[in-house]
Design brief:
mainly alpha, DsbB-like_sf, membrane, 165 residues
């Protein structure tokens, strides 16, 4: 029993760190968009959507605070992190290929078919093309920042999963 409480305390801290990372990723993106007119492309919006789902998983975990459930949610967050890394890499690939930016990408289709762009347009609407100049924060392209956060989420998730009981 004491060991399980120790495990939950460890997981609580790590889930809180992951929540903060996802929350601030979305917050920084929204501040950049709405105050500094750095409009998101479809791949940016996909990454926002993944951070949004991560935050949703943290809330589910909070109410179902058991060791096995923590590990399941950590694996789910790691899976979303892997998809996020793929989205960040595809964002860079498509932004460097002007020809692919003239067509509708998979990200455009996912966002438009999901309905998130019309349900929450201030968060999930696509306002830019991947052909536009890359957006930077402190001289670092956003896809690198996003990729780094996804890597951190995966590492933290795996540490939750691999923690011995």
């Amino acid at each position: 029993m004491k060991q399980q409480m120790k495990q939950n305390h460890f997981s609580n801290k790590l889930f809180l760190i992951m929540f903060i990372l996802s929350f601030f990723s979305i917050l920084i993106a929204l501040i950049s968009q709405h105050f500094f007119d750095m409009q998101p492309c479809a791949w940016c919006v996909i990454q926002r959507l993944l951070f949004f789902f991560d935050r949703y998983n943290f809330f589910n975990w909070f109410f179902l605070n058991k060791v096995i459930i923590s590990r399941i949610f950590a694996l789910l967050i790691a899976a979303l992190g892997i998809v996020g890394i793929l989205a960040a890499c595809l964002q860079k690939i498509f932004s460097s290929d002007d020809l692919s930016c003239t067509t509708v990408t998979a990200a455009d289709k996912i966002i438009s078919n999901s309905g998130f762009d019309s349900a929450i347009p201030w968060l999930f609407n696509i306002y830019a093309s991947c052909a536009d100049d890359p957006v930077t924060l402190f001289g670092i392209e956003y896809f690198i920042l996003s990729l780094s956060v996804f890597v951190l989420l995966i590492l933290i998730s795996f540490s939750i999963c691999l923690k011995k009981e």
